[in-house]
Amino acid sequence: MEHPSAPAHRGHIPRQGLLLAVSLLTFWNPPTTAQLTIESVPTDALEGTDVLLLVHNLPENLLGYVWLKGEGIDPDQQIVIYVIETQENTPWLLYSGRETTYHNGSLLFQNVTRSDTGYYTLQAIDQDFNNAVGTVQLRVYPELTKPNITCNNSNPVEHKDPVVLTCEPETQNTTYLWSINNQSLPDSAWLELSSDNRTLTLLRVTMNDTGPYECETRNPVSARRSDPFYLNVLCENSAGLSGGVIGGIMVGVPAVVALIAVLFFPELQCPGIKETNFSLPTPTSHRNSLFRSKTEVLQPALFAALLAYSKLLILITGRIPLPSRKRERSLFPPSTSK
C-alpha cells in the first residue's frame, strides 16, 4: 500500500513541493535502508581552513539531501537542504553562510572554527522516500603559538627549594612535552608531572639541575617549542648572605690583598723606576736580607688571603674558578739563594 504522502506519479514536481517534501521527511524520519560513508578531508582541520565532508556509496534516484549537526536526525539541527532536481541549496536553522552542498551530497565547510568541531549527519532521501544516513566527525584545531616557561622560583637553593615550571599558555586538546638538556625527562623520584603534563615540579634541585629546560606543545596540525629556560641554583651555605654582603666581601678581599702588597712591597709599585735612597749607603746583602725577611713573614698571610678569597668564590657561586689563560705577574719575586 502506497504511503498517503507519496505522489500519484513520478513526473515533474514543483520546486516548493520538493523542498516541502524533503523537509517534512526529517520530521517523519522514514526507516533507514542504507548507510552512507562520509569522510572528512582533511581528517584534522586547521582553524581558518576549508573542510570537505565527502560522501561515498550514494543510492540512486535520490530526491534530495539534508545536512544536520549532531549524530541523529533532529529537525532543530538542520543546516541546509539540497533538492537534486533544482540543484539548489536552501539554508535552514543552523546555516552560517559558510556551508555549500554539492550534487553528490558532499558538504563544503569554509573557514572552519573550533566551534564547528563535532558530528555531522547526512540524510539522503530517494524518490521512494527511503532513507540513507551517514555520520562523520569534524575536528578543528588551532595553530599553536610559541609556548613559554614560567617558574615560581628561578633562584632556588640547592637541596632545599622545590621548583615548579609551567608551560604556557593552556590550550585544549594539546599535548605537552618536556626536555632537560635537550633530552627527554629521565626517570627520577625528584621529578613530578601534572596530569596534563603542563606542569613540571622539581622536588629538590642540585647544581646539576640548572637546565636548559624546554617545553613543546603539539596538536594534530601544529607543533611549537619554547625558548630554553635556565635555573640559577644557589649553594645552600650561601643562601643566608644578602647581595650587599656578598658584593662587599668580593670587593673587599682583593682590595686588602692589593693594599698589603703596596705597603710592604714598594719595590713592586714601579718596577721601571729605581728607588732613590737618601740615606747612607746600605750594603746590598743587608737589603736582600731585609726583603727576604718581609717576604717570609707576609707571603703566608697573602697566600692565606688569596686562598680564602678562592674558597669564598666557590661558596657564593657554587663553581670552581678556572685559571686565567693569560699568565699574571707574580706578587712575589722568586727567592734567590746564596
In short:
The protein is 21% helix and 29% strand.
Tell me what the structure shows.
It is a single chain. The chain is α+β, with helices and mostly antiparallel strands and 338 residues long. It has 3 domains: 127 residues, Sandwich (Immunoglobulin-like); 87 residues, Sandwich (Immunoglobulin-like), CATH 2.60.40; 72 residues. It has 3 helices and 19 strands. The strands form 4 sheets. Strands 1, 3, 5, 6, 7, 10 and 11 form a 7-stranded mixed beta sheet that branches. A 4-stranded antiparallel beta sheet has the order 2-4-9-8, with no helix packed on it. A hairpin with a 4-residue loop joins strand 6 and strand 7. Helix 2 packs antiparallel against helix 3. The radius of gyration is 42 Å and the shape is rod-shaped. The N terminus is likely disordered.
What brief labels describe this structure?
Immunoglobulin-like; four-stranded antiparallel beta sheet; 19 strands; 338 residues; 21% helix; seven-stranded mixed beta sheet; 3 domains; alpha+beta
Q: What is the CATH first-level class name of the largest domain?
A: Mainly Beta
CATH architecture of the largest domain: Sandwich
Number of alpha- plus pi-helical segments: 3
N-to-C series of helices and strands? HEEEEEEEEEEEEEEEEEEEHH
CATH topology of the largest domain: Immunoglobulin-like
Measured as a percent range, the helix fraction is 10-25%
Main β sheet profile: 7 strands, mixed
Topology, pairings included?
Elements: H1 15-28, E1 32-35, E2 37-41, E3 44-46, E4 51-56, E5 62-69, E6 78-83, E7 88-91, E8 99-101, E9 107-109, E10 118-126, E11 131-141, E12 148-151, E13 163-168, E14 175-180, E15 183-184, E16 191-193, E17 199-202, E18 213-219, E19 222-225, H2 243-264, H3 284-317
